[in-house]
Predict the 3D structure of the following.
Amino acid sequence: MITLNEAHSLEGALENVTGWAEQVIIVDSYSRDATVDIALRYGAKVVQRKFTGFGDQWNFALSLSTTSAWTMKMDPDERVSPRLKQLIAERLPAAKEAGFSFNWRLWFMGKQMPVSSPVLRLWRTGQCRFTNASVNEHPIIEGSTEHIDGDLEHHDSPSLEHWLHKQNAYTSAEARAAVAASSAGGLKDMTPRQRFMRTWFGRIPLRYQLYFMYCLLGRGAWRAGRVGWMWSHLRSEVMRLWQYKVLEFQSLGNQDLPLTFGPGSPDPRVPQY
């Protein structure tokens, strides 16, 4: 795992894999909350390293030594379902493949969503590297891969405030990456979907309304009722925010100004009331 201020979800993730994972390795990006305390309490191997991008951080994590024959990428807000644990345990001893994908199943606002997609998360140790992308990195496996039909549950954010903060940071990183790739003319190491979004999405008329319908109907979020409608609407607004930030960076440059939120400590130079 890689972490930054994940105390709200990390304990659940570690509890989920205790007794199942041979070893847990965490690369922490200098968390300010109890992330490291929780990780050490559960016996995880923890190192800290400055975060410069997801691909770079994951590749560093893969460079750390482990005795396990298989490596699995997991985020702190994810949980391995009992069925997936069982299927992995049954499949690995006689496996000839180099890697396996699972069903990534979304939970939003505490509700299981009818939204899933395959994710490649398990591979033979030493036979994977990540694309050197600042955001939306993906693994490249040396060898064949197969799919295991079990769920990796993604419990997305404990609150909408947290979710919106995360999406704001994500869209800034994605916009910077899009502008950098465009100026450098580089779309290599991207999935077909990523290349399409970077190249064509901004040219489609009514794209945000169409993306809302894609989330609601195409991905089946309508089956979750009001929460599904809310998720679809928010996802379309995230796409809008990403596009607006691309335009901002193209017009004004990447003004990565330091931002400060919330109150600080009392200043001794002025009276306190």
Notes: Helices lie at 7-17, 35-41, 54-63, 82-91, 160-184, 192-199, 207-218, 226-252. The longest helix spans residues 226-252.
